[in-house]
Design brief:
The structure is a single chain. By secondary structure, this protein is mainly alpha-helical. The protein folds into two domains: 91 residues; 98 residues, no CATH class. It contains six helices and no strands. The longest helix has 37 residues. It starts with a helix and ends with a helix.
């Protein structure tokens, strides 16, 4: 297993997940609700920055690796899933949204793994639609974690619109990836 700065940043993102969750399990007299939300928002946003930084540094320093390519999306999906579960528990988003987003991530990850095993991974390469979905999601989650007006922005309203947009784009992008993989799925199932 290689170890370098980009992989360290990815591991830090994974370590941040229990910290994000723990913030909401501290004794009530340790932090106010707003302080908890502020710290959780900071942790999530820092994780987002390390996601950008690890990819940038891996390319810039020529430190890309198969392990890093595997670990990076796992860290991202775990962080998003943890944040969504917290938001559902806090009553700031619906379970249906979390189920759609987490379910899509599991489905597409499994599809990508299977397609890679059969040598057809290009059929399910990351698309612009997936990137737009991720952008909406990564903007919505901090707004919903913070949850109080910020500079004239109603973070609750903006976060809710964006998370529902992310859920719709999630379904759309899942359909896109399944459609791209469908010819190979049909071919493989007809052979058996």
């Amino acid at each position: 297993m290689p170890f370098n700065l980009p992989i360290l940043l990815t591991w830090l993102r994974i370590v941040a997940i229990p910290l994000l969750i723990a913030i909401y399990y501290l004794p009530a007299n340790w932090l106010t609700a707003h302080e908890r939300d502020l710290i959780a928002t900071g942790i999530f946003m820092a994780a987002g920055l390390t996601d950008w930084a690890d990819g940038y540094l891996a390319r810039k320093l020529n430190q890309t690796s198969a392990f890093g390519a595997f670990l990076d999306p796992v860290a991202d999906k775990l962080m998003v899933a943890a944040a969504l579960i917290i938001l559902v528990q806090l009553g700031r988003t619906d379970a249906i949204v979390a189920t759609i987003i987490i379910g899509r991530e599991i489905t597409i990850s499994a599809l990508r793994e299977w397609m890679a095993k059969i040598g057809a991974s290009k059929s399910v390469a990351v698309s612009m639609l997936g990137k737009i979905k991720t952008t909406a999601q990564m903007m919505a989650i901090p707004l919903l974690l913070y949850y109080v007006p910020l500079g004239g922005i109603d973070t609750r309203e903006a976060g809710n619109w964006l998370i529902w947009l992310a859920a719709l784009l999630t379904l759309w992008s899942m359909g896109y990836y399944l459609r791209m993989a469908w010819p190979e799925i049909q071919r493989r199932t007809s052979e058996n």
